[in-house]
Structure formats: C-alpha cells, structure tokens
Amino acid sequence: MRAESFECAVASQTMQQFKRQTEIDSLNEQTTGLQQKIRSSQNRQAKLRALLEDRRKAAPIEEQKAREWERNAQVVSQKSNEYRERLAELQSAVKESGAEERGLDYDQLKELDTRVEELRAAVDKKQNIYKGYEALPPDISLAYVKLEEAKVKLEQLRAECEHAVDAAFSTRK
Fold first, then answer.
1. Residue 104 CB neighbours (<10 A)
2. If pLDDT is split at 50, 70 and 90, which confidence band does 172 have?
3. Domain boundaries, given as residue ranges, for the chain
4. pLDDT tens sequence across 61-80
5. What distances in angstroms separate CA 14 from CA 1, 17, 22, 51, 144, one per listed residue?
6. What's this model's pTM, rounded to 2 decimal places?
7. Three state DSSP letters for the chain
8. In whole angstroms, what is the distance from residue 47 CA to residue 39 CA?
C-alpha cells in the first residue's frame, strides 16, 4: 500500500468523523431543544390540568350562581311587570280624576301636598293646645283643689326620696 493512499484514507476517515461529530452535535442540540420544549409542554399541560380540575370543582358553585342569577332575573322581570301594571293603573287613575284636564302637573300637585302637610301640622298643634285645655278642671276652685293635691303628692315624693338617700348612705358606713 502506498503512503499517499494511506494518507488519503486517513484524511477521508477524519473528514467523515468530523461530519459525524458535527451531525452528532447538531442532533444533541436538537435533542436538548426538544427536551426543553417537552418540559415546557408538560408544565403547560400540568397547569391546564390543574385549571381544568379547578373548573370542575367550581362548576357546581358556578351552576348554583347561574341558577341564582336566573331566579333573580325572573324576580326582577316580575317586579318590572308589576311596576308597569301599577304605573298603568296610576296613569288611568290620573286620567279618571281629571287632573290632566284641570292642568295640574307634578310640581303643582307637590305644592298642594306640601300645603296639605302644613295645614295638618297646624291642626295637630291646635289640637294639642285644645287637649291641654281639656285636661283642666272646669271650675277654678276645683283647679285649686287639684293643685293642692299635686303639692301634697310632691311632698310625699320628696320625703320618700330623702328617706331613700338616707337609707343608702347609712348602709355604707
């Protein structure tokens, strides 16, 4: 065998070894990249599974909330219908009363309502004054008798109070 062909064979083998090593390095890089992607995918998959499990656990609560919201919506709908009916009744009552024909609007009705309340307050005040007079005896001499009775009662209460104070302080000694 000739030295030249041996050198060519060694060079050829060396080049093939470099190519294989380059391919191995490339495959190692690809493997490392794929392993990182697999770990990332596994982490995401674990998070998604945990989220799915949380949603499954929360599903009954969410369903209960949805049913509650539906019930609330039905109640609101019923109340809305009731209020519409009540408004229609009130509007028909206003038409029947002829308030619109007489030209009374809300401000005028409010003013009249305020005036009625003022008059009621004045009547109540006068009734209280009248009740005060009503409690008085019809005769002046009878009034003096009641006054004397009240004075006697006051003296009795004062004596009881003094006795209670004396008793309280005498027990502490």
1. 15
2. low
3. 138-173
4. 888 888 999 999 999 999 99
5. 19, 5, 12, 54, 142
6. 0.34
7. CCHHHHHHHHHHHHHHHHHHHHHHHHHHHHHHHHHHHHHHHHHHHHHHHHHHHHHHHHHHHHHHHHHHHHHHHHHHHHHHHHHHHHHHHHHHHHHHHCCCCCCCCHHHHHHHHHHHHHHHHHHHHHHHHHHHHHCCCCCHHHHHHHHHHHHHHHHHHHHHHHHHHHHHHHHHC
8. 12
